[in-house]
UniProtKB/TrEMBL annotation:
Its main location: cytoplasm. This is 6-phosphofructokinase. It catalyses: beta-D-fructose 6-phosphate + ATP = beta-D-fructose 1,6-bisphosphate + ADP + H(+). GO terms for molecular function: 6-phosphofructokinase activity. It comes from the Bacteria. Keywords: Allosteric enzyme, ATP-binding, Cytoplasm, Glycolysis, Kinase, Magnesium, Metal-binding, Nucleotide-binding, Transferase. Its cofactor is Mg(2+).
Length: 323
């Protein structure tokens, strides 16, 4: 075991996701047991650039394990995209004697670490935290399960009113370029159509179905947000083929990012957090800790990619239930 690590810097970056605090707790707990100091860096790369560092204790994080959001706050940082920003971040890491970094974020955050590794040679470990579930090297990202549960809870309520009025309802869920939330929440609420950014066929199925829709029942469409689809576009296409429909749109928006993490996300956070510290103690660097087939798994940052495809089985389900 490598005992040289004395002070791990921790930060959360990109969109927050339920389960981030549980991961921070897991990290702090196992670090303390191994006599390693933990330093929190506020607001992701922005805090690193601003020198916003403060010590963390597992006793503080224990109180946050059930809470959504992130105790460390998070941000997207334009300055970190510049070499000047990254040099400033490096200076502050050195001044604070940080000898390893654990980042919780999405693929953008890990790309940032990869770029940072050109000038900073301390070990980095990543934990996948995004509600979008669009990172390879892990079956689930932190926050996805909670976000889907929030979406389902709300869609169930929309169904009650949709069915009472025999209305067409379009519910837009998050995932700029990822359909995982839409597929999971759409299938499990019995949606009549599910539209995701990764597929083109689902539009054809929707229009085929809706052109014969006779307002004798509710018609539920779950669609991912995004430039190429989104609720407005779907609404105008439906009206083109069936102009008389009584249609309403609900955008679930940021409500999907908040709330207490599900049991699954809390456990995932703790497991990934503990494994991140263990990986550092085993001299691992520049890897993301994930879960594949319920086993902990490490993926090098340079092999980790944003997933632009949902897996084959989900695609088949989408086709089956889209018809
Ligand atoms: N190629 C890159 N080089 C340096 N920093 C990057 C790069 N890509 C992303 N980042 C940093 O990572 C931050 C988080 O990325 P973002 O895509 O917003 O969220 P996420 O990590 O959730 O995907 C960005 O705001 C930026 O500061
Ligand atoms: O909070 P913002 O900046 O409006 O971002 C919204 C986006 O963040 C997400 O919730 C999560 O994105 P990341 O976790 O990849 O940053 C997307 O689903 C959504 O499109």
């Amino acid at each position: 075991m490598n005992k040289k690590i004395k002070n791990i810097g921790l930060f959360t970056s990109g969109g927050d996701s339920p389960g981030m605090n549980a991961a921070l707790y897991g990290i702090a707990k196992v670090a303390e047991i191994n006599g390693i100091k933990i330093t929190g860096i506020l607001k992701g790369y922005e805090g690193m650039i601003n020198g916003d560092f403060s010590p963390l204790k597992s006793s503080d994080l224990k109180k946050m394990v059930h809470r959504g959001g992130t105790l460390l706050k998070t941000a997207r940082s334009k300055r970190f995209l510049t070499i000047e920003g990254r040099k400033l971040a490096l200076k502050h890491l050195q001044e604070n004697n940080i000898d390893a970094l654990i980042a919780i974020g999405g693929d953008g955050t890990f790309k940032g670490l990869l770029t940072f590794s050109e000038i900073c040679d301390i070990p980095f470990i990543g934990i996948p935290g995004t509600i979008d579930n669009d990172i390879s090297g892990t079956d689930y990202t932190l926050g996805f399960d909670s976000a889907v549960n929030t979406a389902i809870e709300n869609i169930d309520k929309i169904k009650d009113t949709a069915e009472s009025h025999n209305r067409v309802f379009i519910v837009e869920v998050m995932g700029r370029d990822s359909g995982y939330i839409a597929i999971h929440s759409g299938l499990t609420t019995g949606a009549d159509a599910i539209l995701i950014p990764e597929s083109g066929k689902d539009f054809i199925y929707l229009l085929d179905k809706v052109k014969n829709y006779d307002s004798e029942d509710a018609f539920l469409v779950v669609v991912s947000e995004g430039d190429e689809i989104g609720a407005e576009l779907v609404s105008s296409k439906i009206k083109e083929v069936n102009p008389n429909v009584d249609l309403r749109i609900t955008k679930l928006g940021h409500v999907q990012r908040g709330g207490n993490p599900s049991a699954l996300d809390r456990m995932l956070g703790i497991r990934l957090g503990v494994e991140a510290v263990k990986s550092l103690l085993q001299s691992k660097k520049n890897v993301m800790v994930g879960i594949l087939n319920n086993q902990l798994h490490l993926t090098p940052f340079n092999e980790m990619v944003k997933q632009h495809q949902v897996n084959k089985e989900l695609h088949e389900l989408l086709e089956l239930f889209g018809k």
